[in-house]
Amino acid sequence: MNYTIKNEYLNGLMQNVIAKDPDQPEFHQAVYEFLSSIEPVLAIRPDIVEKKVLERVVEPERQIMFRVPWVDDKGEIQINRGYRIQFNSAIGPYKGGIRLHPSVNLSILKFLGFEQIFKNSLTTLPMGGAKGGSDFDPKGKSDNEVQAFCQSFMRELFRHIGPDTDVPAGDIGTGAREIGFMFGQYKKLANEFTGVLTGKGLAWGGSLTRTEATGYGLCYFVDCLLKKHNDSFEGKTVVVSGSGNVAIYATQKATQLGGKVVALSDSNGYIYDENGINLDVVKEIKEVRRGRIKEYVDAVPTAKYTEDVNGSKGIWTIPCDIALPCATQNELNLDSAKALVANGVKIVAEGANMPTTPDATSYFQENKVYFCPGKAANAGGVATSGLEMAQNSARLSWSFEEVDAKLKGIMANIFENVDSTATKVGMEDNYVAGANIAGLLKVADAMIAQGCI
Ligand code: NDP
């Protein structure tokens, strides 16, 4: 990829990032998306340049890599690689999810950790940026094997984290089951019961609404955008990709707000249900049986399943007003963007992290489609993790309604901040610039105040 930035200083930084780690394409992409949108900051904040904030912010504070050996059900030893990227702790303890997927590598975790810095900053809560995970694939593994892996993973990770140091959470492949096994192992090793992980079960320190938070927050963000234009979800056709945690609860909230979600996917293909997705069927398949999305048509024969070897690409050819990519990085490319625009899409909001390629993002912006980047639109998950940390510290549990109301307030604040920041720097409606600049300014102030560390 040719990641050239017009501004000479920013381009120098970009090329240096590429030269330092030439084999990290996802990280380059995330840094490019960031650097190419923050030029207005250079004029208004010369101290950011002088104090080398940008040079520092693209370099993780610490990167940890470790061996994860475990024994499978046949008694054979398996070896995976574990990671934790502690990217930036300027505004709070490191915070970010744990991804378990065969594609996991340093590049993917660095991109995720980098984005997390600015996302966490936007939530207004005191959380630094981090990400971790492993190339372990929980799919097709027994509960025993998942437990063996999670315990081994935590046997090394526990010495690097803590409730005031680094508080991991779930992500792709890490749900309530995995968090439970990891939390149990941490508690045993550290001999302490603390809020060291978020996404915990309700009986042992978890927060109501955390499961729903990312998908709900995404829809609250879109709702703010719609309201700004005196509009609502009412009567809108919505396409959601993925069928995991984020996709399921985005579907639920979009439906509650009056939208009709007509499609969902997984890495094998997508379903189209013109009557609106029956979420009870999806939850039974995905949350109970851990099955495949194609099983939906067994329960709803009027729906259509399309096998899609390109992951969820075909799903973007379905006409919709609102597209919510909620599966994984780079799942929506330029061809998909052209198909969506040709079919009249009005809003694209990222539930996943970096699901849209840079050329697709530019295409949306050029064609006056409102584009909401993940670091703002999907921040509801980590914001609610922040609320879980607050409840753990206070030894309290808030009701679903309390947490949901706080989540709604946070998403409204994020929208307002991103929207007004974009306008202030003369880039009205450019929510990529708004999110990156608003997220950066808070982190930069903290980094400058804390000196050269
Ligand atoms: P889940 O593991 O619950 O679900 C992921 C979904 O995406 C599954 O349907 C999965 O299908 C699909 N998917 C994963 N990889 C691919 C691929 N390579 N091609 C096509 N489909 C794929 O994860 P989450 O819902 O938690 O996360 C989804 C996205 O949202 C990620 O980008 C994550 O980083 C981001 N996110 C998550 C947050 C959270 O709170 N969980 C918070 C903020 C962002 P299959 O089962 O076939 O693999």
Q: Averaging pLDDT over every residue, what do you get?
A: 97
Taken as a percent bin, the fraction of beta residues is 15-25%
User: What is the first-to-last residue Cα distance?
Assistant: 32 Å
Radius of gyration: 21 Å
* Low confidence ranges: none
**Largest sheet properties:** 7 strands, mixed
Task: Provide the CATH topology of the domain at 214-375.
Answer: Rossmann fold
Category from helices, strands and their pairing = alpha/beta
Q: Number of DSSP helices?
A: 18
Order of helices and strands: HHHHHEEEHEHEHHEHEEHHEEHEHEHHHH
CATH class of the domain at 214-375: Alpha Beta
Q: What is bound: which ligands?
A: NADPH dihydro-nicotinamide-adenine-dinucleotide phosphate
Reported CATH architecture of the domain at 214-375: 3-Layer(aba) Sandwich
Shape: globular
Main sheet strand line-up: 9-8-7-6-10-11-12
What is the helix fraction of residues, given as a range? Answer: 40-55%
CATH superfamily of the domain at 214-375: NAD(P)-binding Rossmann-like Domain
How many β-strands, per DSSP? 12
